[in-house]
Amino acid sequence: MTIVRVTTPGGDYPIHIQNGRLDSLSEAIPADATAIALISNATVLGLYGERVRASLARAGKPVTEIVLPDGEAHKNWESLNKIFDGLLQNGLDRKAVLVAFGGGVIGDMGGFAAACYMRGIRYVQVPTTLLSQVDSSVGGKTAINHPLGKNMIGAFYQPISVQIDPSVLASLAEREVSAGLAEVVKYGLITDAAFFNWCEANAAALRALDPEAITHAIRRSCELKARVVSEDEREGGVRAILNLGHTFGHAIEAGLGYGEWLHGEAVGCGMVQAAELSADLLGFPREHVDRVRRVVDAIGCPVVAPDLGTDRWIQLMGHDKKAQGGSLRFIVMPRIGEAELHDVAPAALEPVLARSTRAQEGR
């Protein structure tokens, strides 16, 4: 088993990475827990519910199951309130532990519910998609979506542990694998040029879920994210670089409707757009823009964004959390392995949008 540690003012905790970890989840439940709330959806429970129920039962605590609808379109107030209804109706107290068992949607909503319920209860992340294993389960960002913007309502709230079982990735659809790989590639682009080079050379193996390659990718991604989060828990500075491609990506998701593109697909395409913007603003080499585009294509994500119309693009990007005082703010790269935050005038985005979009003809 590999253990990566995250150290923040909001809590220090381990990330356990091990094939078969689903069968050892009782080890993640504190001895003083009065009850367990298992938050998941029918899809994940249909695949792994029996194993997880048996694993949690070994903790010797009563377990309340709260099953949410599946998909990004349900990451909203209604689903969040369903969690609160289940917690309250079953009398869970402040010593209860919430287990968020699923992809990024479940992890984000479960974490936000834990942050709010009785002003904060403990929770464990058990991510089941590649994107959630390498990104959303680590770092304590929790949220729900609003029709005007993605993840606009939430809290920074750290879990007590993250339990990663890479073997569950075998059940993912190809699109889900590709979406997760976009976040893997992102870590190389923003912090580690050698890791980007490795991703570039191993794109086919990663897409095929080669066990050695995918385990290395998960471990290295968690190490890099843990390092950034430990420096800046609440995104007041360096943590913003983790949003490379996300301002463009969030606009795609909101503009097309949540769930039309997977989050990682939108981020992958957004990274190509961010590379284009980096070339215009910072002189990011054109050959490196092409490298980013080729890698994003090789992992199976879109490389051409939908044409939402320039005004709509600007409007949607203005709702991004990084926007301040009316300025649009983007993560851009002076070179591969480095990233920084820049204010960008809307007019400077027009040539990037012109080069990177076309009328939507399916994903």
Largest beta-sheet details: 7 strands, mixed
The number of helices is 13
Q: Kindly provide the radius of gyration, computed on alpha-carbon positions and rounded to a whole number of angstroms.
A: 20 Å
The CATH topology of the largest domain turns out to be Dehydroquinate synthase-like, alpha domain
Give the overall average pLDDT: 95
Q: Report the CATH C-level class of the largest domain.
A: Mainly Alpha
Number of strands: 13
Could you name the ranges where pLDDT drops below 50 across 5 or more consecutive residues? none
Cα(first) to Cα(last) distance is: 38 Å
Q: Beta fraction of the residues?
A: 15-25%
Order of helices and strands: EEEHEHEHEHEEEHHHHHHHEHEEHE
Q: Please bin the fraction of helical residues.
A: 40-55%
SSE class: alpha/beta
What would you say the CATH architecture of the largest domain is? Up-down Bundle
For the largest sheet, list the strands in their spatial order: 1-2-9-6-5-3-4
CATH superfamily of the largest domain: Dehydroquinate synthase-like - alpha domain
Number of discrete domains: 2
What gross morphology would you assign?
globular
Short structural description:
The protein contains 13 helices and 13 strands. With 363 residues, it is an alpha/beta fold.
Structure description:
The protein is an alpha/beta fold and 363 residues long. It has 2 domains: 2-171, Rossmann fold, CATH 3.40.50.1970; 174-358, Dehydroquinate synthase-like, alpha domain (Up-down Bundle), CATH 1.20.1090.10. Helix content is 46%, strand content 19%. The chain has 13 helices and 13 strands. The strands form 4 sheets. Strands 1-2-9-6-5-3-4 form a 7-stranded mixed beta sheet, with helices on both faces. A hairpin with a 2-residue loop joins strand 1 (2-8) and strand 2. Helix 4 (130-136) runs parallel beside helix 5 (174-191) and helix 9 crosses helix 10. The chain is globular. The chain starts with a strand and ends in a 5-residue tail after the last strand.
